[in-house]
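Hey Z.,

So I finally got round to the 2-(butylsulfanyl)adenosine thing we talked about over coffee. Here's the setup:
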Amino acid sequence: MNKNEALLRIQELSKILHYHNNLYYQKDTSEISDFEFDTLLAELIALEKQFPEYLTTDSPSQRVGGTITKEFASVTHKYPMLSLSNTYSESEIREFDERVKKSVGAVEYVCEMKFDGVAMSLTYMNGILSHAVTRGDGVRGDDVTHNIKTIKSIPLKIQTDNIPAEFEVRGEVYLPYEMFERINQEREDIGEAPLANPRNAASGTVKMQDSGVVAKRSLDCFIYSLLQDSTTQPTHSAALKQLKEWGFRVSDSYKVCSSVDEIIEYINHWSEARFNLPLATDGIVIKVNDLHLQAELGMTAKSPRWAIAYKFKAEEASTPIISVEYQVGRTGAVTPVANLKPVHLAGTTVKRATLHNANEIERLDLHEGDTVFVEKGGEIIPKITRVDLSKRIPNSKTIEFLKNCPICSSHLIRIEGEAAWYCPNDKGCAPQITGKIEHFIQRKAMNIDGIGSETIELLYKKELIKNVADLYTLTYDQLINLDRFGEKSVTNVLNGIEASKQTPFKSVLFAIGIRYVGATVAEKLAVHFKNIESLQHASEEALLQAPEIGIKIAQSIREWFSIEDNIQLINKLKESGVKLELSEGEIIKQESDIFSGKSFVISGVFEKYERDELKEIIIKNGGKISSGITGKLDYLVAGDNMGPAKLEKAQKLNIKIISEAEFETLLNA
Ligand code: IVH
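And the result:
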């Protein structure tokens, strides 16, 4: 291909990809499959690599990230990014309305949800996204354009004509609940403290240095205002419509209201309905609709006079701390937990709250016997927000984080860059040992029936097991002599252990508990390396070649296999007959390409197949499993008891919904 041809093809591909992206993210429909889209994108990326002079900043290839930013450039906002004054009551809203009326007469308002993420300013020059800047101190913010380009609902280029030469939009970048929960599940799998809330997770993600990692986190953005030197729209609601037409994602939750009563109605409705939205919200924003009146009302030093935020009350209660105890996890991380005098809060009784780590105790400046406020935002686990200083006991001592392990007294250590303190005694500290065994037997890992945490503790106490390999040497005679063990329970335990030898390699790999190797990563590793020996001997470079394996995971794997005890553990497991390689059947052999380019979601319970069996059949026949229902999905295979929300979404997006029988027909076609 010569240069001219390359340029033409790059332009053509960009146009096609922009079109399909817009269709998918703004109109929730699609005309081509994921596979076709990815193929076109791959062609574009390859051409841009070969002809870098034709790579443009608005190329659809920029969505995949990959740019590493060491330091974000500081940018001065053309229009300062103000904040809103907050209210918490109906009477304050009435006062706001009175103030507005007094200045400019009766007005119409727009009520919107107050999205709880990170404020972002996006500048478009000639229809192309040129800068994405954080709020910063309101005057200057950080240029995070590379990261923001990975958000697929933000247009890199406006596709319609008659676009103003320059304009700015503001919106809230957020991490959808679903993604937030997935990240936390993965962190839990690998023994890491969960992220506190979606807002922190979003702001942390926006400031990541590697935009490739940002791309994987699937941030999203709701746009809520349009700024121009001279307004072309009469009202804010007209501007929102315009934004939507230009391809921005604008939440449909806004409403034009002409009286305070209507505003209150809106609040009452959304204070419950907000939990059905895909993201966290912490209030509503009330804005004067007429843009000329907005200008007339102007602003104070900090916030506009034409808008106000009504914040949902986080339910709060105050209660004394009875004690702080420390839990040692399987990784040795020591977590402080506050035992509280039981208190009723948002429908449940709260008795305990995590204090996360030493930094949190310091932040709260916690003293013995302090009364604390616990808060539940409705969506997040209870959290201690602050101390009620008026109730502090005079001369009470500050609570100091432990210096030694509460179980084995080893001196605690801190790993650079981590908030947790660790007990380094992984061979002698009971909860680390039993914790590793509990992790091993859990359902997602070896799935050993008949054993629970209590049994493990008992077996460990009786010195019958000290690592996971010892499970496989347990005998009938050893178990039958234990308290509470009858013939039946012994048989159950032994059968469960025996059956676990059939557990697939990927689950074994997760079960052995290498740091950062959660269930998903373990599966990727198993498929890529096929057996434990190749994984054990893989260099860091070789590990980095595997899909989705980054430096942190690679190093952790190298470290795990550098420890002699771990090698011995693997050898013992191998001798016991635990699967440390993919079985014949698991090395996925292509049977056909009948589903090539087709994506599937499987949901519900089926008569003939397990869900995993269906997935395997799809992959073996060239198809792909998608993680969620989107406009690009080809088929939803629906079994019994599937969630109504999923079904409704699929129907709305016109996805083909097929039964188990229809799936078989498709397969045999
Ligand atoms: S309008 C003058 N609309 O709330 C500020 N802000 O305290 C005008 N926010 O930093 C902002 N949802 O990040 C507006 N629908 C919405 C919003 C919203 C969330 C955030 C925004 C801003 C903060 C203001």
